[in-house]
Amino acid sequence: MPPTSTPFSFVLETPAAPPEEAHRHFLAKLSVETDAADLHLDLERGKPGIVVVDVRSPEAYAERHIPGALSLPSRTISEHSTAHLNKQDVIITYCWSPGCNGSTKAAARLSALGFRVKELIGGIEYWVKEGYPTGGTAPQGQPVYSERSQR
Question: What is the enclosing helix (H) or strand (E) of 103?
């Protein structure tokens, strides 16, 4: 009887990190990211020390944004444009979606200026998908991307 072979695994081709290393990695990841549910709950509770920053264009902000978010387009971030922000606060940056790195660029610029920053994973797209309220001219709950806009 021929020996049975175990099928190849794409998941296990690269071995999993040791638990201690994985723990450090995931804590580091959580130190620079947050999600819509956690942010919404903190905002709803009025948690002080959190500033939400929409880094998209002023037009996109006017159409739809997280209530209370400041409009600070990524490319305009400078010492001058952030002078009104408190470096003791934690700034939460967001842009369009997981496919947009504008919030990552903004977080890099803000952290280089000495701010504590976390990025909202999923951006405004996932904020809307979770059913959270938005400000602006777009109807509440309307998807950020429709079938038509993806063609």
Answer: helix 102-112
Whole-number Å distance between alpha carbons of 84 and 64: 23
Q: Which two tokens stand for residue 5?
A: 């072979």
> With the CA atoms of 111, 116, 122 and 125 taken in that order, what torsion angle do they form, in degrees rounded to the nearest 10?
-90
Torsion sign across C-alpha atoms 117, 122, 125, 129:
negative
Question: How do residues 84-125 score in pLDDT, each as one tens digit?
Answer: 999 999 999 999 999 999 999 999 999 999 999 999 999 999
Q: Strand 116-120 and strand 70-71: pairing?
A: unpaired
End-to-end Cα spacing for the chain: 54
